Description:
- With about 150 residues, the protein is of the alpha+beta class.
- It is about 35% helix and about 35% strand.
- The protein is built from five helices and seven strands; from the N terminus they run E-H-H-H-E-E-E-H-E-H-E-E.
- A seven-stranded mixed sheet has the order 1-2-3-4-5-7-6, sandwiched between helices.
- Helix 4 (about 95-105) links the parallel strand 4 and strand 5 (about 110-115).
- It starts with a strand and ends with a strand.
- The mean pLDDT is about 95.
Amino acid sequence: MSETVRLRDVVEADLEAFLEHEHDPEVARRSKFPPRERERFMRHWERQILDDPTVFVQAVMVGDELAGNVVAWWEHDRRFIGYVFGRAFWGRGIGTEALRLFLAAEKTRPLYADPFGGNTASVRLLERHGFRREGVVQHGDDEHIMLVLRDTP
């Protein structure tokens, strides 16, 4: 990959781009995550992500362009990871490099992810980084794959 991928802290100005990513119909289809209206989205990011010291979130930059974000959070006694990239950045190795950088900084293991089963690109991305399938979970009518990273690959 010839493009330089780096991570940086998220700033409030990034949220508009993240909102656009979430509202992309293809992102919503692949993630099976319904887009939130603007006010609810902003409130969630400001209060539950940026203001929570237990959440680790990074903006993904490709050169000077904001490509997306990667985030880790606690859900009960499990640490989860999730990410969203703008569609213009798909299929270019950016997610692979961003996840590699993020996993080097996020040291908690085990680390869980539960992408929609039909999102084979996301499942493959996580498996490429050492996540292993440990079952399925239902979110509404949709089956998601439970993936776990137990050790750093």
